[in-house]
Amino acid sequence: MRYTYTAPHDASRVDHVGTYTRPLPVSLERMYENALDWQHLPHLHASSFTEIECLHSGAWGWRARVKDHKDRVSLLELCLERERRRWITRNLEGPNEGAEIWSHVFVTAPRQMDIVIDYFVPGVAKQEREKVGKAYARAYELLYDEDVFMMTERQRLIDQRLNSMRSEEVWQCQIPLADELPMRVEFSSREFLINHLNGKWVVYPAVCPHQLGPLTGDIDCAGQVTCPWHGYTFDIATGQCINVPHVSFGVCPMIQVQGDHLILNWAQVSVG
Fold first, then answer.
1. What is the dihedral of CA 70, 76, 8, 123, to 10 degrees?
2. pLDDT > 70: what percent of the chain?
3. Do the beta carbons of residue 142 and residue 135 sit within 8 Å?
4. Nearest 5°: phi and psi at 170?
5. Phi (first) and psi of residue 243, to 5 degrees
6. Distance between CA atoms of 207 and 43, rounded to whole angstroms?
7. Cβ-Cβ contacts under 8 Å for 110 (sequence gap 6 or more)
8. How many whole angstroms separate alpha carbon 263 and alpha carbon 272?
9. Would you say 257 and 176 are in contact if contact means Cβ atoms under 8 Å apart?
């Protein structure tokens, strides 16, 4: 864990409990996107957050009530300062009220940066500051371990889509039947999943149309699949999102059985 502690000057009014640093293989765009993304907290970081209620949000940041795994409620505010390449997260109410976390990013190469996070927690005795700082650093190490996958996977899929815009459209493909489901296939420069639902073959996108999260989880008993990044749940039969009605799969290919093969075809289309 890349944690350092430097005792503040005795006259300091700031209770600095430590600094956490680490390199991240992401672009500044993905990093800002992640900082503003309050929705992913109770889904991707379920071990730290169980619920979130956003009160205000915008390009400036967000303010929300969050509940942790001990059912403690906090009012958090994140303010993004792009010109300074930093954001400040403040605990306005709840446990550790008054704490501030200052995150700075330093771009070191294309899609590569160092992040430096300073923790300020009021009311911590001098002899306890390093212990508290290490606890914050461990928590943030886990959060960024989880965030890195989301950011890099999203970047990969964005790059893939940009590259596919220059490729030729494929109107039909033939896929051998397989025992293991779901089957992941690439068709017309897009990734789809093929699965079995209520005695019928179904095909749907392998990524969530919201932020390109993986829809590779099992279909539940209601015929729905959920994105683990933001909790968007989709009805496989209709392609519609259950909890965010304006989001949907869009156009998906038809699927037919032909002997020991499955045929995907754009000639006739369906949303599910």
1. -50
2. 91
3. no
4. -105, 130
5. -100, -10
6. 16
7. 27
8. 16
9. no
Q: So what's the pLDDT on residue 224?
A: 94
This prediction has a pTM of: 0.83
How wide is the angle at C-alpha 27 spanned by C-alphas 208 and 107, nearest 5°?
Answer: 165
Q: Over 70: is that where the pLDDT of 271 sits?
A: no
Q: Three-state SS for 43?
A: helix
Confidence category of residue 258, pLDDT binned at 50, 70, 90: confident
Q: CB burial class (10 A; 0-12, 13-18, 19+) of residue 7?
A: exposed
C-alpha 43/C-alpha 231 separation (Å) is: 6
As beta bridge partners, residue 185 has: 192
> Of the candidates 195, 203, 180, which has an alpha carbon nearest to the alpha carbon of residue 270?
203
Of 70-74, 151-155, 164-168, 255-259, where does mean pLDDT reach its minimum? 164-168
The reported pLDDT for the residue numbered 187 is 83
**Does residue 75 contact residue 63 with C-beta atoms inside 8 Å?**
yes
Nearest 5°: the CA angle 105, 111, 117 is 20
- pLDDT over 60 at 133, yes or no: yes
Which pLDDT tens digit goes with each residue over 238-250? Answer: 999 999 989 999 8
CA distance readout (Å), 162 to 155, 168, 193, 266:
11, 13, 21, 21
Cβ–Cβ < 8 Å for 140, 23: no
All domains of the chain, ordered by start, with CATH? 3-164 (3.30.530.20), 172-270 (2.102.10.10)
CB 219 within 8 A of CB 198: no
